[in-house]
Amino acid sequence: MISKTPKKEREINLKGAVQISHSSFFVYEDANGKTFLKNGKDEKIHKFAVQTMINENPHITRILKKFKIKPNIDTKTLRELTGGHMNDTCNIAMGVYSILSSDIKCQVDKSTLKEASMLHDLGKVLIPSKILNKPAKLNFKERKIMNIHSTLGYELLKTQNLSEETLALIKYHHQNLKHSGYPTLPVNHTESDLGVQIISIADKYSALREARVYRRPLSRIESLLILYREVREGKILPAIYNALFKYAEIYDC
Ligand SMILES: [Fe+2]
Ligand SMILES: [Fe+2]
Description:
Distance between the termini: 33 Å
Shape: globular
Bound molecules: fe (ii) ion
Number of helices: 12
CATH architecture: Orthogonal Bundle
Number of domains: 1
CATH topology: Hypothetical protein af1432
């Protein structure tokens, strides 16, 4: 268990994200307002929390069986996700949100966005590490398995005290404006795409700026150029791209 709140950090109340299955995930905010999930010594507890979520939702086991995935919880993946990519995505999403014009901002719930971006890739703990860390392009079958991580994250976190809005953002964080991402949106889908757009662009930018087993981290310009192609393809709203562009420039990240 986490015994002390480190100096200059305070626990913040992100509804279910603070206490997920027996006080497992602790969300902190530092003096600069950056949020992060506490990790490190508590990996066993985190692992136990994920196992509890699996036990509480039999649908997860059915999905894993369908894709012939062994229900292994990869502690290393969990550590890397909570300590790196999910925090970065959350901070970028918050930065983009803060720069958006008020007419867009008023259509997005900030705390929902924060909570969802902080937890968006939790489902990756169930993706076999040989797929997650493959130093080459994934084949068709591996890509199909990789793509269920957002649904797995949704199913895991459905067992927790999170709102439907947060869960929807987690489930659809790989969707885009053209709805050509995954998983497929329901036919009667009516919600605003703006939250998904912000979390999605933050997720992609964070991933492009990180090193991967198969490539070096891309520069700010390279990453922004890749995302600009998606704007031209109609997958990203220009206003959200412009906010990311400004954020990256202001924070030199
Ligand atoms: Fe993802
Ligand atoms: Fe991600």
